[in-house]
User: Fold these one by one.
Assistant:
Number 1:
Amino acid sequence: MTVLGTRALNRATLARQSLLDRADLPAADAVAHLGGLQAQEPQEPFVGLWSRLRAFDPWELSDLLTGRRVVRTHLMRRTVHLVTAEDALTWRARHEPMLRQRVLGTYRRELAGVDLAELAAAGRAVMADGEPRSTGELARAVAGRWPDPGPRPLGEMLVAALVPMAQLPPRGLWRTKGGVRNAVLSSWLGRGIDPPAPDGSDPVGRALVRRYLAAFGPAASADLRAWCGLAGLPAAVAAVREELVSFRDERGRELLDLPGAPRPDPGTPAPVRFLPAFDNAILGYQDRSRIVDDAHRGLSVAGERAVLVDGRVAATWTARDGTVTVTPLRDLSRTDRTAVAEEGREVALFLSDQDSDRIRIAAPL
């Protein structure tokens, strides 16, 4: 079986993520291809798409949100993701058991003795008037029946797991601040959530395997699970295995992939790219060594924005008062510093609406 080295896997990831060459795609198609963008920080998906698309207009993404073609909702890993409306409705039921378990993992003691079916019914009854509510408002509306857990466990279980919700605009719009207001997902999108297959098969699981590999492959089953948080996918992997090709990484893990997916030559040059906080190009793997050194693995989890140099995390960056500040994690060559500065100026112009191209490269950490 062919062994793919770290650099080969890196270039494959960059190609799938449109980070090797920016793609000529509408924003909606890019969101679909990527399987959504992690979006608990509302402005970060705009940077993620700007770094991936050749002619990205941030107002296009805002229009997709207000037009209900993309939606902010709890999904993979119980985190807020920006996904297409179609994916939200198709994937939500498959994710629900995981969402419940992850909330219980945080609040099991507080929610002990609470009948979750009854709690879900109470939450739906409150939301039946069609009025959007914050998590706290929904929790307080049902707290009289369950006074002991407190509003936060009740609210998080309802909004993140029991009642599929959409976070409504203006939350997540370009250059707009707005608190979280939730509406029932099916009401907001005008169509019911797809139910699980009645015959016990898992078409959604099989589709998730294919979609993940298209955007992240070649990858191991553990990487797939790290991306979506779902257990019970081995059967889905087995069901599509004959469609796939296999490799091994340098650790000996089996990697699966779509046969026609791009796997560029490891020597392919990789441009500097600025990634937003919590970007799935890093978080979408259990083994992230293809893109970040183990010593810096925790940066993305902590919400640091990353700069890729030669395809790997080499710096963090911030933007404040029209200035992009890059903090290298190692010494950069003169050529790399020049490339970082050039791309940093473009990021500054994007974030400032062409008003500032100030870039500062700090001393390495």
Number 2:
Amino acid sequence: MITSNGIGRCVKAQAAAFVTALSIAFAFAASAAPVSDIQGYPILEALQAKGQALAPDTTDWMKKWKGMNLDDSASYQFKELSGSTSINMKIEKIDSSDPKGYKSRGSYIPHNSAANPDVEIGASQLGALLGFDSIYRPAAPYELGPVGSKALKSLIDNAHISNRQRLENKANILKAIQSGAPLKGCVKAKKDDTNVALDEIANTHAAPNGAPNSSHPIIRLLQASSPQPVQGRTVTLKNGYVGDELELAREFSVIMLIDAVTQQWDRYSGGNVVIRKDDQGHAHFYATDNGGADIASSWSPRNLNWFSRFDRSAVQKLADIKKFLDAPATGYLGYTDPKAFVVDLGFYSLMGADVYAQRLTRNIGFVLDYVKATETKFGNAAYFQ
């Protein structure tokens, strides 16, 4: 276990370790077949086969990406980079019937100093496994081939980049492309048009990299010592963004739960707590940026100490995953091999599957231990009623 000061050092070390991490990404043999032509979504499709309905946003992007091959220059084009500190590439599917001449297919994200594609994928799929994929921006594994890599290199070479972190990312990504190996990363859905940052919920000045704003009404409701949120009572998060108090509290509790499992260190630094509206105009949380995280060699309880009220069904589903990881013969969604499971979950590019499985098992175990200790202390108040 490391202290909060240790976390600060870990955050600073994240960028410094990027060159090494990116090298590791190409040193390891892939644990699964290269994903340069998306043919399926094993975990999401297993949930559907089990009878679980996925969010419309999830199924929509599953359809858009199915069969996508970014080396098919007759179907896809790349004209723009995205990202503030990270360097990503926007994906355009050529479509003459569209007034713009193309339809967005989101962005391709390689490893950046502050963007871990494995966790982008893993967090969104954990959201689905816990029954909350509606609040996660979809992502899927993708290895960029020679045509796509050439396009990314050209865009980077011709871009004016002055930000120090982006300059570091530029050098590292170009080095990875030069190696000639497929560029491991992910594709990530286009942001919802109604998404907006909710920095009011964060104390962005807290050391080492921000923290929840303890006086925000949603954060207060996530404390077991506070009154329970009430279904049907509305909360205004921002002008024009109004949602149900209980629903919003449950959603953010799940985001904090998954943040703890994935060791998210960049949720509260600014711009990374996001909300959006559904088709009826109701506000919801929207975990749009989950890449500032790492299934690290060290464990920290940093994210856990900020909340003590949980969604009971999400905790139970997390416990089901832990049971399988501990005793693979029990099976889970048709899996009997934890290594195959973690790769399909999205943890595939920086370390071996056995290491990912060990660390995921450890992290979920610590999270469940905290939930159990909180329940012992507060009883049913630790859960939404």
Number 3:
Amino acid sequence: MRALLIGAVEGTRVAADAIAATPGWELAAIATLPPELAARHSDFIDLAPVAARHGASLLPVAQCNAPAFLEEMRGLAADIVFVIGWSQICGPEFRAAAGGRVVGYHPAPLPRLRGRAVIPWTILLDEKITASSLFWIDDGVDSGPLLAQRFFHVAPGETAATLYAKHMTALDAMLRELLPQLAEGPVPGDAQDEAVATWATRRRPADGRIDWREPADQVERLVRAVGRPYPGAFTEASGERVTIWAARACACADRQHASPGQVVLRDATGFAVRCGDGRALHVLDFETAASGAPMLHSVLGGGT
């Protein structure tokens, strides 16, 4: 079985390793973004070493639905195309060029949370259980028949990085079970239940701006949801951007009379900011252009 893999992130690497390691499969090529377009994915990784390690061709592609790339796909004559870690919708011409056999991956319990930015949304929505899903790509968005799903719990203090890692473990396990099945013959998959489908909207880096009028727990959840490998939650101090990578809600502002967004404590581990519910966010890891500048009694931007 010849496979073409399309993607640009860690999940693409996981898929490449699984395909190459499965008897009866050949990873013919990896199509990925050229380096100058890496900014399209905040979690972009260079797949050139991965392709070289597995003896696969590396195909730079800016638009997967472009006629020139579709011609390359036809020439590869892959038995199945895997689209894992790719933000572009595969149109009807793409699916036709792939012979209608295109497998997609989504880090959510489809049909719940179809769409974009689902790892941040999982944390922002305070989901208790989530799943990784493999499915046949059809003419909808994340709506095709399910080939495999692996469910797991979302920890109370889950971060984007820890949730991302759990999804990678689930993806690897699912592929190593599914690939032999696909090699043996047709796997139709199970239709998704449209009655329970939900959709997640796109999130941009600007959506990580902190509104200090919100409760401390909600601000802390935002920090966890959009941290590495994503751009991070941020605010401003004296016109300088402050990116907050780790924080915890606390009662350390109980004796401080302050407005939301005002720094009320600075200690060896970081600083604390008053939030809208009277509690504080204790910032433990942050980054500025001039890290370490005193912030005690500063008023931070983002809804003071």
